[in-house]
Amino acid sequence: MAEVEVVVAHKARTTLRVGDVFLKIDADQVLTDVEVDAMAIAPIPTPEILWRKPPVLAIAAVPGKALGRLGEPSTASPAAWAAAGAAVRRLHDAPLPPWPGRRLDEIAAQLDGECAWLVTSGVLPADLVNRNREVAEAALRPWKPVFIHGDLQITHVFVDGDEVTGVIDWSEAARGDALFDLAILTLGHEERLDDLLAGYGTDVDVDVIRGWWSLRSLTAIRWLVEHGFDPASPGCEFDVLRARM
Fold first, then answer.
1. Which burial class, exposed, middle or buried, applies to 54 when counting CB atoms under 10 A from its CB (0-12, 13-18, 19+)?
2. What are the tens digits of pLDDT across the range 42-64?
3. What are the residue boundaries of the Aminoglycoside phosphotransferase domain, all occurrences included (predicted)?
4. What is the DSSP secondary structure assignment for residue 142, as one 8-state letter?
């Protein structure tokens, strides 16, 4: 009999694995709607949806293994990273999803609020927050919307050898900035950015990617702390921010 493995569990979502089946229980069914719709139209490999009985979504495991993990060196080959870049480019070249994404003013307002909280709560030194707020400014510019995954963490891209076998967790998919996806995938793995861009196949503004590294880290820390994660772990968000000093 297959054992039940808790993949992730917090107040917003719980994901269980039973054999080759993942059971995702989400408090917000709108996010599950987005995930189902996004996987149906994404032009890259996604998990097979087995069934849905709200609040549970059952999906099949994808073959291969994750491209890496935050806080650990990625053992994937440069060719695998290039393949991931090519897959992301296919997504960004696809028709836009019919639902909107976050507005620039919303993102800027969240950034300001989280920076203020980080300083007043004493979670991070003011000089570290202020420096990264300056770096994040590069990301706060108008962009041409593309179909983005929206939460393209390194653990959400699966490869087998040098081939992408699946991209999971689509609940944040929307219209957005292409460089945001590239930044999230390389968060904490700056040394693999050139490999990723070799497959993505176009010139990008690396300063904007650096801006998204800072912005994502600054705005994620409070949520991570409140949901039982440790952004101070080696190679994680605190270290990403310190790298900008």
1. exposed
2. 999 999 999 999 999 999 999 99
3. 38-202
4. -
**pLDDT number for residue 112:** 98
User: Directed axis angle between helix 206-226 and helix 126-136, to 10°?
Assistant: 130
- Give φ, ψ of 186 to 5 degrees: -105, 10
How much is the mean pLDDT over the chain?
96
Q: How far is CA 125 from the centre of its chain?
A: 26
pLDDT of residue 2 exceeding 80, the answer is: no
Burial group, residue 208, by CB count within 10 angstroms (0-12, 13-18, 19+)? buried
Q: Name the pTM for this structure.
A: 0.95
SS3 state of residue 164:
strand
Backbone angles phi, psi at 80, to 5 degrees: -65, -40
Residue with tokens 């570290």: 128
Burial of 165 (0-12, 13-18, 19+ CB in 10 A): middle
Q: Which pLDDT score, from 0 to 100, does residue 1 have?
A: 65
CATH of domain 62-242: 3.90.1200.10
Tokens standing for 35?
Answer: 């995930």
Is residue 84 classed as helix, strand or coil in its secondary structure?
helix
Sheet with 157-160: strands ordered across: 65-66, 157-160, 163-167
- Residue 80, CA distances (Å) to 83, 85, 161 in order: 5, 9, 7
Q: Are strands 56-60 and 146-148 parallel, antiparallel or unpaired?
A: unpaired
